[in-house]
Amino acid sequence: MGAPVKSAHAGWISFRTRIGLFVARPTMLRSALLNVMIKAARKASRTLKRDFGEIEHLQSSLKGPANFVTAADQRAEEILREELAHARPGYGFLGEEGGAREGSDKTHRWIVDPLDGTLNFLHGIPHFAISIGLEREGTIVAGLVYNPITDELFTAERGKGAFLNDQRLRVAARKRLADAVVACALPHPSRGDVELTRSEHLTVQDKVAGLRRLGAAALDLAWVAAGRLDAYWERGLSPWDMAAGIALVREAGGFVTDLNGRDDMIKTGGILAANEDIHGHMLRALREAPRAPSTARRSSA
Question: Which of 116, 119, 124 lies closest to 68 in space, CA to CA?
């Protein structure tokens, strides 16, 4: 019997011998765009991993209650901006730390959070991520969420599906709220509509299997895409908190809207992500929550 010969055809790797095909398995063929995003994220992650390993020595500056800007955060964003600009020099850039930078190509914009889950990071909790979204003519068309500690790389491109490393993702198939595990937010009293959030928590908690507050919006959305969470909602988010996750959930077969059921997440700062059935149940449950006059403000976390 001759040695196996490996060949790649239409996303499959095959091993052939003289007696024919004996092994075949699917593999992911990434686009040039995703490769650009992945290269940037992996390069930026090196500084995050180094600083996370020496967290007690990390220098940070206080930006606001429960919201810190770290040296690692700033370094990571600069690396991401430089790498993405090198590969796509005309694209605009919107980052949490550096704000907006116009590009010569007005149809494309990177939306980046170099460190989503900053408070987790500073407390040595290994649940944080780099988030990169690409907006084309106002629509999110690609997303990447990368946790450098677990090496979980979530990617999606419009019309091409969502993946965790090389594994195709689908949202969970549960249909009843009573079976659902749902992620939510606990806004700091100095920002966010705390009373409304508490009201929503009480209303939803009576209807679901469990509520979770994990502290990183991009990963919450990635986990909905992966079927680990059945739904996620939050108010007062910024574009970089959710851009990549929107692409992930939609490409995994899920529904993403603002909290009024419309496609205005980036504008309103509110988001609800789930499969079709749970999304409808959650919208109704959130509308049932007693409301007081809103004092919500946008998050910069």
Answer: 119
